Amino acid sequence: LNVPISKEASWLWTSINKWHRLSCELMRDSTKDDTLVEKLRSFDSPTEIVYIRKLIDQMNSPVVFAHNDLQEGNILLKQNKNSRQVAFIDFEYCAYNYRSFDIANHFAERIYGYKSRTPPYFTEHKDEYPTRDEQLTFIRTYLAEYNALQSNSRAPNRGDSQRRPMSPRFKAWFSEASSPEEQMLKEIQVFSLAGHIFWILWGIVQGHVSTINFGYLEYAKARINHYLEDKIRLEEEIDASYRSL
């Protein structure tokens, strides 16, 4: 993309650090519902941010110009009988970012609906998360387009070549991927955690400053629960892979 903006994958960490700083300030002086606020305060976001970054720094996910908020309200299906094209809107969070963050966030957003007219004004259906086959269909289509761009010398940047060496535990799990599609599935699993952290902190901040009628703090709590479930699942897989060596 020929625009005067940074093409490094700094947006994610800059944003997370900003939301974390603001959330800490707002939570410290919060007068919101005690039970909910205590639940949010009990989440050790500094430790989790370090944990996620260590995992991401061991991978080499390509950096692309990403939307970073591909939820249902930002994807429009064109009304054309002869075409199934879609259009993206709301580019507020667009930036260069890790490719797998954008896709992981899109998959996670399949769970959440934002059309409810009753508090907390969102719904959560975990059975809507894409199946493995659905994810692979998406990934194969994406990679076909990505590879076509590469052949035309218009492909996005690769990830940071100075990544950290993989730890033995992480390498045992990640090296099980036998194809680019399988590798991307594993990247998405890791970046899902980063997406949860981003929206947890965002929700806490918006819950204290926004005047929009939406359960931001309830949303942050839902994303915490989702994060913890996904982290447990990932750690179990990594441990199982390492033990099988």
UniProtKB/TrEMBL annotation:
Q: Name one GO biological process term.
A: phosphatidylethanolamine biosynthetic process
Q: Which InterPro entries is this protein grouped with?
A: Kinase-like_dom_sf (IPR011009)
Q: Which GO terms describe its molecular function?
A: choline kinase activity; ethanolamine kinase activity
Q: What keywords sit in the KW lines?
A: Kinase, Lipid biosynthesis, Lipid metabolism, Phospholipid biosynthesis, Phospholipid metabolism, Transferase
Q: Which Pfam families match?
A: Choline_kinase
Asked if the keyword Repressor belongs to this entry, the reply reads: no
Which family is annotated? Belongs to the choline/ethanolamine kinase family.
Name under which the protein is recorded: Choline/ethanolamine kinase-like
